[in-house]
TrEMBL record:
Tree of life domain: Bacteria
GO terms of molecular function: cyclic-guanylate-specific phosphodiesterase activity
Residue span(s) of domain EAL: 23-277
Protein name: cyclic-guanylate-specific phosphodiesterase
Residues of the full protein shown: 411 to 689 of 689
Species: Methylotuvimicrobium alcaliphilum (strain DSM 19304 / NCIMB 14124 / VKM B-2133 / 20Z)
One Gene Ontology term from the biological process aspect of the record: cellular response to nitric oxide
UniProt keyword terms in alphabetical order: c-di-GMP, Phosphoprotein
Length: 279
């Protein structure tokens, strides 16, 4: 029995070493990924429910590591936050996306805004508002050309601070959306105080909307609540016609999901914006 225990222990040690190496490799690689140009952006269309017009593009970060391959953002963004890299990385995303939008504007695409994800640490960054204002100015964009998405849990971590920063961002015209709504236990009293234009209804509720009465109730109630507060609803992760019909019926304002388009590289966006969509 002792020998087995020892073997298990050695196996465990080897596993741990492997995990630790992976983690260290990830951290080390992240530190040099910016300089090495390994990050790029994808864009996912958001469409107006009633007419399928593209009104926005969510900016989604991608990392192609030479050995690890494509590392999903759900895996590397938490690490980037822990090692204090998210500030620089977030700034790179904002700069790159704004300069891309400026390009599209000069090609004649006037009515589409970009939606950029903001991490909780960026929210706490000194001079965030000045930085956003200066990126917009540098790219000859208006505040309304940019929407910032902040998760419900990030906003609720320190609601007073969030309210203050959100107000400052609104003063420069930037639009604000609460991301992953329904997963973060918001206090409704704070929701009322946040100067937001949109709620993004989390994909987990949309997924089983036709079969799970609880999810359906949450979707309907969220839409009703948002509308009562003068806030639009973006339904995330819409994959099927049935989900779309259901959400349309319950007056979700905007939809995003694989049914309309998957996140795509920048080169594909003008083609998509020009194509008549038969959804
Ligand atoms: P999110 O902000 O909730 O982004 C939506 C995610 O859902 C994206 O995953 C998108 O590809 C995926 N998605 C969109 N439509 C559908 C659909 O119909 N079905 C399914 N199954 N999935 C769909 P992605 O690109 O892997 O991003 C994951 C998360 O990583 C994002 O979740 C966001 O929290 C974070 N993230 C991505 N880019 C950034 C960034 O630039 N900054 C920060 N702070 N976080 C980012
Ligand atoms: Ca988002
Ligand atoms: Ca989301
Ligand atoms: Ca999410």
């Amino acid at each position: 029995a002792k020998a087995v225990g020892r073997n298990n222990y050695q196996f465990f040690r080897a596993e741990m070493k492997h995990l630790t190496n992976d983690r260290l490799l990830l951290e080390h690689s992240l530190h040099e990924a910016l300089e090495k140009g390994q990050f790029y952006l994808h864009y996912q269309p958001q469409v107006k429910s009633e007419n399928d017009h593209v009104i926005g593009l969510e900016v989604l970060l991608r990392w192609e590591h030479p050995v690890l391959g494509n590392v999903p953002p759900d895996q590397f963004i938490p690490v980037a936050e822990e090692i204090g890299l998210i500030g620089r990385l977030g700034e790179w995303v904002l700069n790159t996306a704004c300069s891309q939008l400026r390009d599209w504007r000069s090609q004649g695409f006037k009515d589409v805004r970009i939606a950029v994800n903001l991490s909780v640490q960026q929210l706490r960054q000194a001079h965030l508002v000045e930085r956003v204002a200066s990126v917009l100015r540098a790219n000859e964009l208006a505040g309304g050309d940019l929407e910032l998405e902040i998760t419900e849990s990030a906003a609720m971590l320190n609601p007073e601070v969030a309210i203050e920063i959100f107000n400052a961002l609104r003063n420069i015209g930037v639009e604000l959306a609460i991301d992953d709504f329904g997963t973060g236990y918001s206090s409704l009293s704070y929701l009322k105080l946040l100067p937001i234009q949109r709620l993004k209804l989390d994909r987990t509720f949309v997924k089983d909307i036709e079969t799970d009465p609880n999810d359906a109730a949450i979707c309907s109630a969220t839409i009703a609540l948002a509308h009562a507060l003068g806030i639009e609803v973006v339904a995330e992760g819409v994959e099927t016609e049935a989900q779309r019909d259901y959400l349309l019926h319950r007056e979700a304002d905007i939809m995003q999901g694989f049914l309309f388009a998957k996140p795509m590289p920048a080169e594909a966006v003008p083609v998509f914006l020009n194509s008549p969509r038969a959804v």
